[in-house]
Amino acid sequence: MYKKYDKSRFSPEQEKISISEFRCDYQRILRSPYFRILHTKTQLIPFPHNHNLRNRLIHSLEVNEIAEIITERVNNHLLKNDLPTIDLNLIHAATFAHDIGHPPFGHSAERSLDNIMKCFGGFESNAQTIRIVTEESHNVTLRTVAALLKHKNVIPLKREEEANLIKGYYQESSIFVNKILQTYNQPVIEEYIIELADDISNAIYDIKDMVGFFSRNQFANILNSNTILSLILEGITSNPNYKNIDNLERIINCLFNEIKDNFLEDFLSGQISRERYALNKIVIEFIDSLEFWFITKFCDLVTKKRKH
Questions:
Q1: CATH class for domain 4-183?
Q2: pTM for the whole thing?
Q3: E-assigned strand segments in the chain
């Protein structure tokens, strides 16, 4: 699956790397100060000293766990068909780094920072991630950067004061991004896996934070009003990567009803073991619901790449 160019780096290394290239990426991200400070950044609810609520570091670990489950399932299918498998070290590196440039308080903070920095090119979370991982102190492989790159257009250096936030990459990163775009003519499989894992994590674990933020009775009322279901459906169905999933809305509705019917009592129990059981079951149910789609899509990507 992986070619020599996948493992190349933007800057030459001063010393020979004694471990695999993707394992090296994983270790560099894991030891990065930018990764460690994610524990100070809130994920959804702005109460950083409440240990019942998640921060960006915990979110990144959860995305990594979900991405690993998805990758293992895809790899099992690839092995059965004598196809090359996905490197888990690369998945670890990219999942740990996927939010490394994101501010606390999510998209509202992103918009605020963009307004402040508009006359200097603005601020965009994924652009900041690409800027960080291409620094000489990280110097990760092309394949890892490709897995993290979400937007393929450059953000203008100067914009009108009333201009909205632009999704893209910074002009200063152009030399790196241009090399990625020249090397890869389509998104790499790891990008899809990480995005899917991120969306599943946001859909499920953010609900857990809402339980911690609201009283359990309040949360149960909100859940029954279908407000949360509407938000999840809006977030997932608006993603163009999922447009080819048959009956996606029906799948999410069925899954949500199953959560309410079979797992809600454990979910709201206040007992760690029961909550953990419910969360694990919900994650697996979510992955099971989408497995046919992602196995078909990801294996097709591997097959096409192999032909080229």
A1: mainly alpha
A2: 0.83
A3: none
